[in-house]
């Protein structure tokens, strides 16, 4: 196995890691919650910000809307982050895109 080649001294640590579906799912959810919390905190410190959007269709023919946020805080530090990705089910009219845009911002607690 690769663990023997890369980290032979950590072999026992790898063997004790649970990789059940439930464990992996809960770890992914915990990582998502932590990253979302960090992003919300960073956004909360922005003095000014801008949003960029892009819409594309995935391999399953589902439209995906991606929101990026760029902001500057009071120390003039600039940050640019992938804010969220929203699936557009049904049509991709301007009103559909705007609705998902608004919901994405609400999820991140960004006021328009």
TrEMBL record:
This is General transcription factor II-I repeat domain-containing protein 2A. It comes from the Eukaryota.
């Amino acid at each position: 196995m690769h663990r023997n080649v890369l980290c032979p001294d950590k072999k026992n640590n790898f063997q004790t890691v649970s990789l059940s579906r439930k464990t992996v799912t809960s770890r992914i959810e915990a990582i998502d919650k932590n990253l979302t919390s960090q992003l919300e905190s960073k956004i909360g410190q922005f003095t000014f910000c801008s949003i960029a959007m892009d819409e594309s269709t995935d391999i399953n023919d589902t439209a995906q809307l991606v929101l990026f946020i760029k902001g500057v805080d009071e120390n003039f530090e600039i940050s640019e982050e992938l804010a969220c990705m929203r699936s557009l089910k049904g049509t991709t009219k301007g009103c559909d895109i705007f609705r998902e845009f608004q919901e994405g911002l609400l999820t991140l607690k960004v006021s328009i």
